[in-house]
């Protein structure tokens, strides 16, 4: 087997860095890990072929330090960089610098990072491809007067969004004109502070939508496929905490239309590598939300159901190879549920970093753990709170729910607090079991318990 690259540097840490190392081992590609001073003893450092310290504990001085990351690639002779998710994964300037050094960025082109990194340009691409969109503004809104006109035409409630936002940041629901007058300037200021641009736009707000996404992959030459759907409606403050694949409770017609819309968008722009197209679904209607031009945290749920190694597919596509799978081969086998095991207090949601004094992973058929922690590992306070991912596959959704509940009961993490008790409760709610949950369900459920 020919190696896609001679050496690959992983510009990330934690479980995603380990996941990339494992994919590279199967492709016989040597790996370079980068690490901060706080991560010197981390598992991704231990299992990579080489490792380079890129700075102090805070991410801004290490994992976000472009000159240090690029220097690490140069001195180790890496000819490819995989950014994982977060950190520099969607940074077009970083991808451009990587390319100028003659190194391959394992991700989209700089052009597509710009297109999909801005919600307004992403919506324009979706509009051109014929995807259904929510009502609202077609571009950035400069004044509160324009905002009021658009909101009146769209109909309240509406949502103000930062054009450069993501992960639920820079969003404000507006119920009436009085509220719009009150928050418009604040939303612009928040957008400028968080994303370097005050551009905001308005969309129609759906009160109880489901969040359905489609995994896609393109070859950069007009070819593209989808790898099924996921449901990510179980969210706390727009942050996903439970995901499942394929998305349940969709009619065959609706599922087919969503999947084809996503793959047609990828084909229409000549996209290369993997991505996720996200939609809001209400009834039999669906509406384009955004494209995440990177690997997603929840990609293992798709891998377990469809039997595709998405990281390996990313690497091969970045090397200029053809898609290794055809659309006709994408057939769901069972149902998967993924739990994000966050190092947070399940009641207050405050971060819970520290030393793990006891650790035991669940096992058995259909159980997968993607983790970079272990007994005596330290969950650092400097980074995202994600400690592990529990992925369980069953023969159908009911079976998967039973299995994941048993797996949670077996999962022991001592010394720090995790969100597992909360997620177990949520899995047992009638709303989740019967498919009556929606994007704000968790927030409203938590509020009702206060």
Task: Tell me about this structure.
The protein folds into 3 domains: 8-106, Rossmann fold, CATH 3.40.50.20; 135-204, 2-Layer Sandwich (Dna Ligase, domain 1); 210-448, ATP-grasp fold, B domain (D-amino Acid Aminotransferase, Chain A, domain 1, 2-Layer Sandwich), CATH 3.30.470.20. 34% of the residues lie in helices and 26% in strands. It has helices at residues 14-26, 43-47, 66-76, 92-100, 110-117, 119-128, 144-154, 177-195, 252-268, 299-306, 310-318, 397-410, 420-427, 430-433, 441-448; strands at 8-10, 31-36, 50-55, 80-82, 104-105, 158-162, 171-174, 200-204, 210-219, 224-236, 239-245, 272-282, 285-292, 335-342, 354-355, 358-360, 367-371, 378-379, 386-394, 412-414. Strands 13-12-9-10-11-14-19-17 form an 8-stranded antiparallel β-sheet, with helices on both faces. Strands 3-2-1-4-5 form a 5-stranded parallel β-sheet. A 3-stranded antiparallel β-sheet has the order 7-6-8, covered by helices on one side. Strand 1, helix 1 and strand 2 form a beta-alpha-beta unit. It is globular and about 60 Å long. The model has no long low-confidence stretch (mean pLDDT 96).
Observed structural traits:
alpha+beta, Rossmann fold, Dna Ligase, domain 1, D-amino Acid Aminotransferase, Chain A, domain 1, eight-stranded antiparallel β-sheet, 15 helices, 26% strand
């Amino acid at each position: 087997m020919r190696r896609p690259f001679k050496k690959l540097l992983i510009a990330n840490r934690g479980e995603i860095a380990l996941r990339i190392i494992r994919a590279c081992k199967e492709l016989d590609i040597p790996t370079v890990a980068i690490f901060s001073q706080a991560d010197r003893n981390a598992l991704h450092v231990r299992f990579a072929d080489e490792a380079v310290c890129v700075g102090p504990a805070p991410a801004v001085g290490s994992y976000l330090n472009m000159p240090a990351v690029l220097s690490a690639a140069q001195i180790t002779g890496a000819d490819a960089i995989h950014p994982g998710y977060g950190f520099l994964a969607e940074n077009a300037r970083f991808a451009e610098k990587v390319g100028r050094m003659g190194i391959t960025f394992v991700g989209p082109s700089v052009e597509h990072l710009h297109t999909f990194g801005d919600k307004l340009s992403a919506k324009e691409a979706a509009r051109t491809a014929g995807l259904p969109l929510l009502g609202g503004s077609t571009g950035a809104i400069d004044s509160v007067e324009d905002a009021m006109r658009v909101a009146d035409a769209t109909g309240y409630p509406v949502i103000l969004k930062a054009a450069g936002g993501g992960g639920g940041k820079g969003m404000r629901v507006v119920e009436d004109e009085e509220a719009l007058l009150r928050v418009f300037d604040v939303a612009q200021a928040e957008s400028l502070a968080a994303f370097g641009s005050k551009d905001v736009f308005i969309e129609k707000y759906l009160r109880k939508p489901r969040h359905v996404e489609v995994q896609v992959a393109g070859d950069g030459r007009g070819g593209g496929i989808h790898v099924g759907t996921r449901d990510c409606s179980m969210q706390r403050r727009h942050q996903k905490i439970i995901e499942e694949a394929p998305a349940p409770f969709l009619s065959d017609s609706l599922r087919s239309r969503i999947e084809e819309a996503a793959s047609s968008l990828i084909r229409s722009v000549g996209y290369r590598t993997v991505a996720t197209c996200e939609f809001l679904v209400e009834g039999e209607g669906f509406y384009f939300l955004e494209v995440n031009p990177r690997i997603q945290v929840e990609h293992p749920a798709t891998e377990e159901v469809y039997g595709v190694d998405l990281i390996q597919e990313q690497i091969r596509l970045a090397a200029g190879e053809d898609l290794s799978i055809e659309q006709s081969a994408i057939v769901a086998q069972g149902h998967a549920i993924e739990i994000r095991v966050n190092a947070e207090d399940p009641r207050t949601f405050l971060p819970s970093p520290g030393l793990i004094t006891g650790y035991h992973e669940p096992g058995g058929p259909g159980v997968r753990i993607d983790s970079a922690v272990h007994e005596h590992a330290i969950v650092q306070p400097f980074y995202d709170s994600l400690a592990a991912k529990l992925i369980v596959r069953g023969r159908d959704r009911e079976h998967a729910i039973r299995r994941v509940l048993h797996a949670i009961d077996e999962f022991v993490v001592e010394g720090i607090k995790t969100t597992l008790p909360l997620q177990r409760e949520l899995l047992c709610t009638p709303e989740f079991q019967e498919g009556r949950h929606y994007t704000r369900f968790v927030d409203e459920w938590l509020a009702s318990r206060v």
